């Protein structure tokens, strides 16, 4: 996941970069362009998650740049920044589909609030898309086999690990009482339901940490953890490293 800053004002670009690097979103890759031409080229090559564009660029207007990006890519958010305090600019950028407008110098708390809103929006979209796929799997593939309740439960957990599921939910799926299901699950798998679910979530997180640049808090929500802090604590207990340390280690290994 990356954010592209299109701004010929170096001081402003550095400020935004520092705001992001000193926040919980420091894992996000930051790209910079000094002109509309360079920025549009980088959008096509790097497909950033968010584009932050100055509205007054030397070779074009940020409005035109943003409109072009939004017309070609429906998975990119655009944020406008400007020194001009004009209602017309705000209105036109929002009406054009921009996801935010910030006056320079951008205020740290307000800017990060916008970034977090967009990260959450993308997370929700990803979960909805995944839910559609898994819902199809549920209807076409997942069928409770009363002769193999634990195998059925395991299959359901593997398909729905990212949801907020608990022991009672699974027991109900296989028509067993929670206490009876818990005993049977431990006998068959030699682990508890919570331990099994957590292990699956951790394994999924390891894949995302190694193969994507998604922020850690986004990964946490995508795999079913209620918070990034709880995910980090659980991950370290399981792997002996924090998610950040695990990602850095594998980046170094891949580099050799």
Low-confidence stretches: 128-140
The total strand number stands at 5
Please tell me how large the radius of gyration is: 22 Å
The SS-based structural class is: alpha/beta
Organism: Salinicoccus halodurans
Pfam family, one: HTH_18
Protein name: Two component transcriptional regulator, AraC family
GO molecular function, one term: sequence-specific DNA binding
Brief summary of the model shown:
By secondary structure, this protein is α/β, with parallel strands linked by helices. The protein has helices at residues 10-21, 36-46, 62-72, 87-95, 108-140, 149-160, 167-173, 178-189, 193-211, 216-222, 228-239, 243-255, and strands spanning 2-6, 29-33, 50-54, 77-82, 100-103. It has 12 helices and 5 strands.
């Amino acid at each position: 996941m990356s954010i592209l800053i299109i701004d010929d004002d170096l001081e402003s670009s550095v400020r935004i970069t520092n705001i992001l690097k000193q926040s919980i979103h420091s894992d996000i890759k930051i790209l910079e362009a000094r002109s509309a031409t360079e920025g549009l080229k980088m959008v096509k090559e790097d497909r950033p998650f968010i584009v932050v564009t100055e509205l007054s660029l030397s070779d074009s207007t940020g409005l035109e740049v943003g409109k072009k990006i939004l017309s070609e890519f429906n998975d990119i958010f655009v944020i406008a920044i400007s020194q001009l305090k004009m209602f017309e600019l705000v209105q036109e950028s929002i009406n054009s589909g921009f996801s935010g407008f910030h006056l320079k110098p951008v205020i740290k708390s307000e800017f990060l609030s916008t970034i977090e809103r967009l990260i959450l929006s993308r997370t929700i979209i990803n979960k909805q898309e995944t839910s559609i796929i898994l819902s199809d799997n549920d209807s076409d593939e997942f069928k409770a086999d009363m002769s193999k309740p634990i195998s059925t439960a395991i299959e359901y957990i593997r398909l729905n690990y990212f949801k907020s599921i608990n022991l009672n939910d699974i027991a109900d799926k296989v028509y067993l009482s929670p206490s009876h299901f818990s005993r049977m699950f431990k006998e068959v798998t030699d682990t508890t339901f919570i331990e099994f679910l957590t292990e699956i979530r951790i394994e999924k997180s390891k894949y995302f940490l190694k193969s994507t640049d998604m922020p850690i808090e986004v990964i946490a929500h995508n795999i079913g953890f209620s918070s990034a802090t709880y995910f980090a604590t659980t991950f370290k207990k399981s792997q002996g490293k924090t998610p950040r340390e695990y990602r850095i280690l594998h980046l170094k290994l891949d580099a050799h």
